[in-house]
Amino acid sequence: MVPGASLALTSVRTRAVRTATTDTQGGYVFAALTPGPYRLRVEIAGFAPWEGSEVQLSTGDSLHLDATRSEEHTSELQS
Questions:
Q1: CA–CA distance, 30 with 62 (Å, rounded to integer)
Q2: Measured between alpha carbons, how far is residue 55 from residues 2, 14, 25, 69 in Å?
Q3: Residue 44 CA to chain centroid, in angstroms?
Q4: Exposed, middle or buried: residue 38 (CB in 10 Å: 0-12, 13-18, 19+)?
Q5: Which of 6, 9, 23, 64 is close enough to 43 for a disulfide, judged by CB 3.0 to 4.6 Å?
Q6: What is the 3-state secondary structure (H, E, C) of 19-45?
Q7: What's the pTM?
Q8: pLDDT for position 77
Q9: Whole-number pLDDT of residue 6
């Protein structure tokens, strides 16, 4: 992960969303999550958003997820 990425962790069961921003080392923590299925979405300026597959969290779990970056393809008109 890279510094300054915007993260959204969504509970598949309740649709509740928790947000965070990665720190200067690209790290992040979502603490005190209720067990259940979640999806992580990552947005970084200049790159297409990334959304991970569903992950199941149980009590006491610690999980590390990395996003694969894909550059956004944009068109610019120059005069």
A1: 10
A2: 21, 14, 24, 19
A3: 10
A4: buried
A5: 6
A6: EEECCCCCCCCCCCCCCEEEEEEEECC
A7: 0.79
A8: 43
A9: 95
For the cut 70, the answer to whether the pLDDT of residue 19 exceeds it is yes
Could you give the CA distance from residue 47 to residue 43 in angstroms, rounded to a whole number?
7
Q: Which two tokens stand for residue 67?
A: 């996003």
To the nearest 10°, report the CA torsion of 21, 51, 36, 63.
Answer: -60
* Rounded Cα distance, 72 and 52, in Å: 17
Between 8-12, 68-72, 74-78, the lowest mean confidence (pLDDT) is in 74-78
Grouping H, G, I as helix, E, B as strand and the rest as coil, residue 6 is strand
User: Of the candidates 41, 34, 32, which has an alpha carbon nearest to the alpha carbon of residue 1?
Assistant: 41
